[in-house]
Amino acid sequence: MAVVFEKSKVLTDAPLHYCPGCTHGIIHRLVAEAIEELGIEGRTIGVAPVGCSVMAYDYFTTDFIQAPHGRAPAVATGVKRADPENNIVFTYQGDGDLAAIGTAETVHAAARRENITVIFVNNAIYGMTGGQMAPTTLPGQVTQTSPYGRDVETVGYPVKVCELLSNVDGAAYLERVAVNNPANVKKAKKAIKKAFQNQIDGKGFSLIEVVSTCPTNWGMTPEKALKWLEDNMLPYYPLGVYKDIYAEEEAK
User: Fold this and answer.
1) Is the domain defined by 24-251 classed in CATH 3.40.50.720?
2) Looking at the whole model, is its pTM more than 0.90?
3) Pseudo-torsion of CA 80, 83, 89, 94, nearest 10°?
């Protein structure tokens, strides 16, 4: 019998703690495959803050550091600068972490063009803490703290991270992807791998935003959550490359 797929050696055998239908598992696999294919497992250090990714160290065979809520880019900066020639450093963060409590760390790491890779999971809600409204929650979206839908007149508009960082001179590569179907999963893996390759090549700050689902806190089945993402999140958070300074330079 032919072997058509093998689990990445960068993933452990620990059972995932994520809810059924959660797309964190897919994203973990893509990150692990990128690390393995680039041959950097022994050099890679992950940084995960508080949030659904809080137990990421159980799932990767690379070294991992637990950071305070929102501070992963600051911790990653220190780890990278401690041994910039050898350490490959990535953060794995949710939207409540990266786009709220850690907004300053994210923006300033990009402004300094820190040579790190950021994996940003945007599911438009606070997942681990019970489904509260997040900075990325869509206008009109119902959450535990916006039971009548997000009212932009009182709480403002969602934060679009790729668009925001595209105006930061230090950001080198920004791309928004999704993992809601096989075609998008393939594109997501390509983007994640490129972000790691950029770090290997010393190109600076790369962030991959992955539009994702949270079936439990959205109050949907996994299947309906994927459809809701396609119909509601992707129009508001369009996929694509938002900045790639080296591609732009090569095109000149």
Assistant:
1) no
2) yes
3) -30
